[in-house]
Design goal:
Elements (H helix, E strand, L loop, with lengths): L3 H6 L7 E2 L2 E2 L1 E2 L10 H14 L9 H21 L7 E4 L2 H15 L6 E5 L8 H10 L2 E5 L9 H7 L4 E7 L11 H9 L5 E4 L11 H4 L3 E5 L10 E5 L1 H6 L10 E5 L2 E4 L13 H16 L2 H20 L4 E4 L8 E6 L4 H10 L2 E2 L1 E3 L4 H6 L5 E5 L6 H18 L1
Parallel strand pairs: 3-15, 5-6, 5-7, 7-8, 8-9
Antiparallel strand pairs: 1-2, 4-10, 9-10, 11-12, 13-14, 14-17, 16-17
Length: 405
């Protein structure tokens, strides 16, 4: 069963202080904190397992290789993928999307084609497609966002057409917390033989993901949001699509044979993993998956939902606070603006009390424009947050309101 106090004890940073106050960490949508087992796994790798992978015949290299490839198998299980070779390790969701965008630029898109994204995308799922369209003559189409922060599904249906070559959509909005009906979107796209990429940076930490049940063609996961290290992420792709796309980067470890007359590439997944990878990061991510495997994730989600519900109710009771994004299906992200107080001032005031939130445009500038705001303050909860965190947050907002009048 989910025991919140035990869980909090697994994350050493949560017992620290900031500005002389107990740390209240509410910036989980930007990056999550790490349990001791992940920190220990990374440290242990460098202390007793450090070697390059895939290339050495000595025991230390073989041990590192086994640990690295074991992480691939664990991630395939975590996402319910068919085969470990459908798991590509990369720096993060940003690099993974760029990998797919490069492949579509090189081998799929042409003049007059269309790529369909939504108005709530992170810049990492906008700019790569803008570049792809600029280079190929394709057009970028955008699904509008309704006033409550949900997608305009009627517009989505009308935008899908014979010119659409890809739908690239976020599963959970990092700025609004909106949970998009990705299965419905995937089914509609597949009915027209259109592949779908899903940005799962925010969803993988909060829900169980089954890529086979979703039937998505690509799915992206961020390691540092999934309680693992920074600098590591995962691209899942259906084998047929990964085989179709050309290499993204070239160099060592992605080749079978190099000759001045030509080069042959490895099969999957090696074709997309050029050079020495972030071995320690992958091993740390492997440990994070082990941690999540034994966690009562239903209990964890219930805790997050309770925090979101209470935070929403409490903020709605404070005069001058306006929540941005009130979709019926939401994850534990709450963005708001405060009348006559800039979001950055909100963040600075809360930081003085040891409360860490995110302020700014959250790499979603078009979405901020949609809601006619320059920036929002964003509190985002993880399963290790408790109601003491929430109480400190709400109390600080009330004190701030009194301070600014």
């Amino acid at each position: 069963m989910f025991n919140l106090q035990t869980v909090r004890g697994d994350f050493p940073i949560l017992s620290s202080k900031m500005n002389g106050k107990p740390l209240t960490y509410l910036d989980n949508a930007a990056t999550s904190q790490k349990p001791s087992v992940v920190i220990d796994a990374v440290q242990n790798f460098y202390k007793s397992e450090n070697a390059n992978i895939h290339r050495g015949v000595f025991q230390l290299s073989e041990q590192a290789t086994a640990a690295y490839e074991s992480a691939r198998t664990k991630m395939a299980d975590f996402l319910s993928a068919d085969k470990p070779e459908e798991i590509i390790f990369c720096k993060g969701v940003t690099e993974g999307i760029n990998l797919v965008a490069h492949g579509f630029t090189e081998s799929i898109l042409k003049q007059g084609d269309e790529v369909l994204i939504s108005g709530m995308e992170h810049h990492a799922n906008i700019v790569p497609w803008q570049i792809a369209c600029e280079r190929t003559g394709a057009q970028l189409k955008v699904i509008p966002v309704l006033e409550d922060g949900s997608l305009d599904l009627e517009a989505f249906d009308s935008l899908l057409n014979e010119k659409t070559r890809l739908v690239s959509i976020v599963h959970i909005s990092n700025a609004l917390g909106t949970i998009n009906p990705v299965k419905r979107l995937i089914d509609a796209a597949h009915a027209k033989n259109i592949p779908v990429l899903v940005d799962g940076a925010q969803s993988a930490p909060h829900m169980e993901i089954d890529v086979k049940a979703l039937d998505c063609d690509f799915y992206l996961v961020s390691g540092h949001k999934l309680f693992g290290p920074t600098g590591v992420g995962v691209l899942y792709g259906k084998k047929a699509w990964l085989e179709r796309l050309p290499p993204y980067q070239s160099g060592g470890d992605m080749i079978e044979k190099v000759d001045f007359e030509g080069t042959t590439y490895k099969g999957l997944p090696g074709k997309f993993e050029a050079g020495t990878p972030n071995i320690s990061g992958v091993i740390g991510l492997s440990s994070a998956l082990d941690y999540l495997k034994v966690l009562d994730r239903k209990g964890a989600l219930n805790n997050e939902d309770a925090l979101l519900k209470s935070a929403t109710e409490a903020l709605n009771e404070i005069e001058g606070i306006r929540i941005i994004g009130n979709a019926a299906e939401k994850a534990s992200v709450i963005s708001f603006v405060m009348e006559s107080v800039h979001a950055h001032d909100v963040g600075t005031f809360l930081d003085a009390g040891g409360i860490a939130i995110r302020t700014g445009h959250h790499c979603t500038m078009p979405l901020m424009k949609r809601f006619n705001v320059a920036a929002t303050a964003r509190a985002s909860f993880a399963f290790y947050n408790d109601f003491n965190d929430l109480d400190r947050f709400i109390d600080a907002i009330k004190k701030m309101k009194q301070f600014f009048g």
